[in-house]
Amino acid sequence: MNWEYAPAPESRAIANLKPNYQMFVDGQFVDGGGEPLKSINPATEEVLAEVATANAEDVDRAVKAARRAYDKVWGKMPGAERAKYIFRIARMIAERSRELAVLESLDNGKPIKESRDSDVPIAAAHFFYHAGWADKLDYAGYGPDPKPLGVAGQVIPWNFPLLMAAWKLAPALACGNTVVLKPAETTPLTALVLAEIIRDADLPPGVVNILPGAGDVGATLTTHPGIDKVAFTGSTEVGKLIQRSLAGTGRKLTLELGGKAANIVFDDAPLDQAVEGIVNGIFFNQGHVCCAGSRLLVQESVADEVLEKLRHRVSTLRVGDPLDKNTDVGAINSAEQLAKIRELSASGEEEGAERWTSPCPLPDKGFFFAPTVFSQVSQSMRIAREEIFGPVLSVLTFRTPDEAVAKANNTPYGLSAGIWTDKGSRILWMANKMRAGVVWANTFNRFDPTAPFGGYQESGFGREGGRAGLEAYLDV
Amino acid sequence: MAVDTTTGSSTGLPPELHDATRDETSLRRFLHGLPGVDQVGVEQRAAGLATRSIKKASKLWAIDTAISMVDLTTLEGADTAGKVKSLCAKAKRPDPERPDVPQVAAVCVYPDMVATAAEALRGTGINIASVATAFPSGRSSLRIKIADTEFAIEQGATEVDMVIDRGAFLSGRYGQVFDEIRTIKQACGDTHLKVILETGELATYDNVRRASWLALLAGGDFIKTSTGKVSPAATLPVTHVMLQAVHDWHAQTGQLRGVKPAGGIRATKDAIRYLVAVHEVAGEQWLTPDLFRFGASSLLNDLLMQRRTQLDGHYSGPDYVTVD
């Protein structure tokens, strides 16, 4: 029997796509001094919209607007009042969730089921959660009357455009800071719809400013002397540049960078659910996840069984049109990223790993990469050490728990880890040994605003979410 | 547990599975050695797969396939010959105005109604399924369970839906459950045997997996979720676990065994979710009435209404399908 699912695309019209998008500065949508950029749909390579970008004067104007808003209104507003604005933003995100989900899938290439069921609801949840903190900061454990920092400069990546904006904005606003935020060059659209929501929520002008642009705008923003706090999510390489440029300035910095997480499967694990977790760990969002479980460490005694189950499961993943509700894996975000994934995969083959690629059909147009699993991988290979940031899994094996710990920690990164076993005591023992900011047990890639997220070593420092995440935006 | 004197080659099972049934201890060791099922994980997977959007031609195909997989069931104390006959008429021509609607797979009744059903269904190719072995509780002696089975077959049943002894299973007497299934299988001969696990009473997914493997090892042609008399009856995650079991069984033995969720599946939308699970968990080759069935009664009319909606482009309402 051959049961082909008919295409079930979400309507593109729901995105309310406009031909032009402007920057959001001091409560107004304005043109920028920079060269406008064209945001494309990675699934079709068509231009979606032209987006204004900022130049150095625009950055300066935005920072000054944020400073004014901080001094005159937001910094001294009672928390209970700030909370009302933040609640309103959360509600409006929820109300416009379908529009945001479709727009996110168009601009980013991620499947609609993920933007609909993960990105947008979690973005709203972050605002809801932090709205609740705004009038309770005295009880957050940072002293009786913790103060905001001032103006925050925030730079976010292209893998979760709206969600990362929410992770950055919600705690900053709840703690009484004002913000200048730069969305990623390839995915600026949902952040600008969020700007509309912020305007419609009557947030005082200048509290939030959103400036699209490329890396140069980010560099100007993060080094601007009017900024009190920098928060960056992105590559380790850029994170290091930012840290270097801020050294000695006394400005606070939090970095959330790359990762090469180990997903560790013991022989007593619930194997079918472990396979689900492995798939979710590396193929969620095309593997464009800093905490992706990109290294599978599986106990040798069950390695063959797990690999067989894994290949069967991966071959059922549906790759294609991100707007189709049945798509599991969408488009790679950019030609540049696709080239990087191809180059690293080729290195895996050259270095002697065994490559298996899902036999799924791929669309003719757009940036797509079939889910790929490398077995016979050793720690010395590039695909075991470097972040691929794509739907490519490297499978390594271990014999004992100590070996699993040693291999899992043998990376300059340290963002996340997964542990799969039915033995509770082993979960606790392993979790203590993992040098990773987030450790999942018998699950993977679960996000919640109440749980702090962040890394060790080259994965960055500082936490986002939960009580711990407030510290990044308070003078403590 | 009776010592199994047959050799591995005669059961057609690979040695490790054949060895599992050597004695009570081996059986227990095998069943407890199966990988556990993580509740959160399997429920998350089932919920995720339930969001598949099945439209247009693929929906119509699913509806027709689901109709052809229905075991149209009446298992009431109040059943009469008249009720069974009208159910059989429905089974033959589910939608009298649309002769292209497929027949259902089987009619499922109590043993004393089998003769009536067999008479009404003669020459149609529709199977006559009978519950047996002191259905639904299974609380009787093995002698009576065998007699119950033999009676159903004498009366003309082509499929037997037996219940396992959940009391024995829950107290860890796996050998007894195994022997009972095997004995009933022998009594069945060529008659198709479905083994009802009554997953609502087994309570945990680990138990569902163990009971599934136990029934497959003992020779059940189908594993079935429920009697329909216990709540919860069939659920998507339980069916996932069972579909995974028949998939793994096939991978290890090359044999194809079936799955039948029963009870509580009333809407087309739900039936399609089950078919998606069959498709993506077990595999495409299970999308046939030979390997997947729905134990249901009211589901059929909803499938017929949705079929009309797909073809006519508008809803027609419950008065346009026959109530039997």
From TrEMBL, chain A:
Active-site residues, Swiss-Prot/TrEMBL: E256
Domain of life: Bacteria
Record Pfam families: Aldedh (PF00171)
Gene3D superfamilies: Aldehyde Dehydrogenase, Chain A, domain 1, Aldehyde Dehydrogenase, Chain A, domain 2
Residues of the signal peptide: none
Domain Aldehyde dehydrogenase residue range list: 30-475
Keywords, alphabetical: Oxidoreductase
Protein name: Aldehyde dehydrogenase (NAD+)
The organism of origin for this protein: Labedaea rhizosphaerae
From TrEMBL, chain B:
Bias-annotated ranges (Polar residues): 1-12
Cited InterPro entries: Aldolase_TIM, DeoC, DeoC/FbaB/LacD_aldolase
Stretch list, region Disordered: 1-23
GO biological process, one term: deoxyribonucleotide catabolic process
Gene Ontology cellular-component annotations: cytoplasm
Entry's EC annotation: 4.1.2.4
NCBIfam families cross-referenced by the UniProt entry: deoC
Protein name according to UniProt: Deoxyribose-phosphate aldolase
